[in-house]
Amino acid sequence: FGDLEVVLQQNNRHHECRFTSKSKHFIQRLQNVEKRIVRVLEVAGGVMDELANPAGPRKDLLNNHCGEFMQLIKDIQVTLREEIKSACEYRPFDKCDYSARLSSEISCKKL
Amino acid sequence: MADEGDMEISLDKLPIKRLEIIEESGAERFSSEVEYEKKTVNLIRRIDFAWALERDAKKQKKTKEASAPSTWQGLIENLQLANQELSVIVDLIKLEEARKAELLKAGPPLGTRLVGKLAEEGGGLVVVEANDAVTVAHMNRPKPLPNEALSDLAVSAATKLQSFRHLSKYFKQSAKSLEHQIAREARFYGALIRLQQNWKVKWHRLAANAPGSDGFLIDLSNNAALEQLAVSRAARFSVVRVDHDSSGMLAVNLPESSCRNFRFRFLDAQSGDGAEGFGKHTVEESSKEAKKDSVNDDDLIRETHTILCNAHRAMFYEQVFDLISQESFNPSLGVSVTGIRENYLELSIKPGVSAFISLTPYNEEGQVTDSSDTQDVDESSKGSSLVESEQNMKLLSGQPNYLVYEIYLQQLFHDKIFAKVKDHPTKPGRVQPNQQQNDAVGLVNHFCLSLAHRIFSSKVIMELENLVTKITYLQLISQPTWHSRTSSWVLSVKVPEALLNSKSQGWRSEEVHIKDNKLLFQTRVVVKDECISIEGGGAPNVMGLFKVNPEAMGSKNRFNCDLVDLPMVLLLQIASQIICWLHEEALMVGIKTKRDFLSLSLELEQGETLSLVAHVDSEDELGCISWWLTMDDGCTDERKLQANLPDGESSSRRFLGHLSLEALYSTLMDLVSLCTNGVKS
Question: Which residue, B239, B269, B573, B657, shows the most beta carbons closer than 10 Å to its own?
Answer without folding.
Answer: B573
